[in-house]
Structure formats: structure tokens, C-alpha cells
Amino acid sequence: MQLIKTDDLLILHISLNRITFLKYSEKKILAKKLDSSRSLALLSIEEIETIIGRQIQKRVVWNGLENLRMAERAFLYCETFNIKILLNEDPYYPELLRQISDPPYLLFCRGDLELLSKPCVSIVGTRRLSSPGRSAARNFAYDAVMDSCNVVSGLATGADGYAHQGALDAFFDCDEKNADLSKLGRTIAVIPSGIDDIIPSCHKKMAGQILQTGGCIISEYEPKLEMANWHFVGRNRIIAGLSAATVVIEAPDGSGALITADFALGYNRDLMFHKVGFNEQAVYISGLVKKDLEIKYAAGKVSKYKKQNTMARYLDSGALVIEDYKDYCKALIESPGSRSARSEQGLLFDD
Is it true that the peptide bond before 91 is cis, omega within 30 degrees of 0? Predict the structure, then answer.
């Protein structure tokens, strides 16, 4: 059953989505209490506190009418350019994502929404990918799509880009051979910017190909919204939340890909590391990154969490190492504890 969404109701939800000082649950409370977008705009910060039952930090600035104006602008942009807006209760909102502890209040989408609820695998990794890592990311995604599995990644340079490209290559190869495209998976790009903006700009062509081949691009951020650094972490939680499993191609200490890995574990999803992450080039790159990270940590420029967020940490917790997509499928159906990442792969780390 399709939800009935009037224009003003959508504007109210966009208005709520824009409020960064509110938690997901608090936005839901306000949505139930309010009957129009203007009723939210006219609330004082004190009235908002009363409704949600929590005191808001004094440094928070709230301009309800300006927030409404920006929400109306975003709504009109979405209407003009056929950008779909999914509420958490919408039938097209992916169930796996709905189950996480901090799901996006809204999703702005371009492309095929049905992909979001079909079998997916999330592929992540460092931007400083080794040559074997590039092939591994591309080949894993290619094989996944050929097996009717959708590939989720973040459209960044490095592992993300090669994963998306592998998915696209599978489509183009099948199309050239006049094969049945309906049996193929597609690729889903989760972006940290507004839904109308592609970052990095060098991937604009790839974004176009993702849509042209029946894929999907999603963001929790409205069009024309200025991007903040913390959006990248928000994007990572969505990547982890969309799939039952996340595969890390290569990830030096402190890598953003390991933040996604942390989210995957926190959501009780499968987490696997590709064996290519331990090749000679990858180990060399990891060594350089580790030294730089230690210098920055000593200077107080990075957090202790970032310094301690390593692949070894996840392998110690039971994350598996796989060789390719076929091995990934095998690992999914194996009994827990049937293989040891360290002993079977002969992996050594400096603790």
C-alpha cells in the first residue's frame, strides 16, 4: 500500500530532516504531534524541548521560518527533477536500513527504488588502493552483479569507484551480448552530499552511467545542502545498513572503510575482509599510513579511536578473510567458527 503524502506533509518531513540537533526518534515524535510544516516553523526552541522531553544545548540556533523556506526550496527542486523522497514508513524504504539503531529519517533517491530492498553486498575500501586491490574490487562487484546481487558503495575514489565500475562492466558486457539484463544485479551509490551533487566531480560520468544502467543513487541530504565533513560518517552507516554483509577490500589503520566495518558489526551484519588487503603493495601503503597516523595522534590531530581502528581489531573479533565473490558466498552459509581468519590465511599483525 502506497503512503498518502501531501505536498505539505513532505515539506514538514523535509523540515524535520534538516534539524541536525534532533535525534531520529525525536523527529518522529514531532512528526506525530504536528499537523503542518508551518506549525513546526512557529515552534520556539523551548516548545520543541517540551515536546521531545529533552533540553537542547544552549548554543543551538533555531530559525523555524528559515528552515521552512529551505525545506520548501528542496521540495520544489525534487518535484522539478523527479527526485523521490522516501519516509521511513514508506514501502520502498529498505527494511534492513530501517532496522539499524539510527536510520536516516528521509532518503532522497534517483533511479530504481526497488533495488534498495533486494539482496545487496556493500563493498568498501581505501582511496589509496593497490593495483591488485583495484582488480579485486572490480572483479568482486562484477561477479556479484552477474549473480543477481546488487553492489552498494559510496562513489568515492579508490575501492568504491572500482566496485561501481565492476558492476557497470557486468551490465555493459551482458548488454553487448544481448543477454537477459533482468537477471543482473545493479549498483547503488550512497553519497555524502546533497542528492543533486556528485562528489568527487570526476565521478559524475559514473553517476550518470549508474542511473542509465538501472542503478540507484541515494542520499539522506536534500538538494543544494552544503556538505559537512561529518556527512561522510553518516554515509558510511547507510552503506553498512543497506546490506546483510560488508566486504572490505583494503583498509589501512584509521581508514574510513573501517568506520563502515564498525557500523556493520554494530548492526549485527556479516563483515569480511578481502585477502588482497594483505598483498605486498597494500601492506606497504598501510605502513606509510600507520606512521603518518601515529605522528598526527602524537600531535593531537586525530582521535585515539582512529588510531586504534585497525583490520587486526576486526579479525580478532572473528571477521573472515575471503578470496573472491565465490568464497564470499561460501562463507555466508558456513557454520560460525568453521574457519579462522588468522590461522587459515596465515595473517600476521604487529599488535
Answer: no
- Residue 162, helix vs strand vs coil: helix
Give pLDDT, residue 2: 42
DSSP state of 115: G
**Grid coordinates of 164:** 561501481
* Cell numbers given for 107: 532518503
Helix, strand, coil content of the chain in percent (nearest 5):
50, 10, 40
Rounded to 5°, angle at Cα 323 from 165 and 207:
15
The set of cell numbers assigned to 142 is 562484477
What does the pLDDT read at residue 317?
A: 86
For residue 349, the model assigns a pLDDT of 47
Residue 294 parent element (H or E) = helix 280-298
Residue 212, classified by CB atoms within 10 Å of its CB into exposed (0-12), middle (13-18) or buried (19+), is exposed
Q: Where are the beta strands (DSSP E) in 191-261?
A: 216-219, 245-248
Q: Which residues of the chain have pLDDT under 50?
A: 1-4, 342-346, 348-351
Amino acid 5: pLDDT: 59
Q: Give every CB contact of residue 139 below 8 A, 6+ residues apart in sequence.
A: 166, 324, 325
Helix residue ranges per DSSP H, 18-98: 24-33, 37-41, 45-52, 64-80, 95-98
> Residue 66 region, left (φ>0) first, then alpha (ψ -120 to 50), else beta?
alpha
> Taking the model in full, what pTM does it have?
0.93
Residue 107: what pLDDT? 98
List of E strands, 102-163: 106-111, 120-124, 150-153
pLDDT value for 111: 98
| Euclidean distance between the first and the last CA atom of the chain, given in angstroms as a whole number | 53
pLDDT recorded at residue 221: 97
Please choose, from the candidates 274, 123, 258, the residue with its C-alpha nearest in 3D space to the C-alpha of residue 185. 123
